[in-house]
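stuck on this chain:
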Amino acid sequence: MPDAAPEPPTSPEELTDLEQTAYSVAAEAGAAILDALGREIFVSYKDKPAGERAPIDPVSDVDRATEELIRNRILTRYPDHAFLGEETVDTFLPGARFTWAVDPIDGTQNFVNGLPFYSCSIGVFDGPTPVAAAVWGVATHRGTPGVYHAHRGGALNFDGEPMPQHGDSSNGRMRQIVATPMGNSRRAGGWDYRSLGSTALEGALVAAGVLAGARNPDPHVWDIAASAVLVPAGGHEIWTKAKGAAAWEPLAAIDPTAFVSWRQPVIVANEATATELRK
């Protein structure tokens, strides 16, 4: 039997439609997350205590409800697409051309503790290629909630408008900020290091030029799917390193058969910062 014909490239119209859907759904999900702040939030944990260490991987009823909202919106509009959600990864059915990779609340630990740095992340793959994305953040460059969104080859947008190049409005500033988990920071170069707790929002803020860079040692696909689109749209870089590999490579695609199990270090940064973080 001959090999199946390759899928045609995503058309400009498809890319725009995917971006706009991701944007509108992320905005709706963000509004639902904010609305939940007015009531009691119920939290459980995916991991178990280990000796004296308390569990560290929380999930709330808001995570689950938000993912269900997003799933319903996406699959109603695109019933032939696949949906990979952090909270429902066990129901993922591979094989569709398009896959939506979703983290309903990236930064749940921050969310359940009332720390206003978390996000809702939506990324779309055409086969192995990230092609559209939206990240709603409770904290943005404007100091208010909003949505960063883009499609492959397009410009970075914020709440439906083109994102202007982020200017340096702080006169006399000598150090920029790089986000990295605790234990991975290095007091080198012209940066200060922070552990912020939301990989997707960190990526969006790199795309917007707020952060010089961010590094995560082992994210899931749903953590970085949106950054793989937003960061290049903002004129910056995204790199990864396969297990056992000596060199970092640009993150341009992910094998769909590995979507569930994929865990690799990722760097998102402006050019100069990316060069230093890869050393």
Remarks:
- The chain is about 25% helix and 25% strand.
- Confidence is low (pLDDT under 50) at residues 1-5.
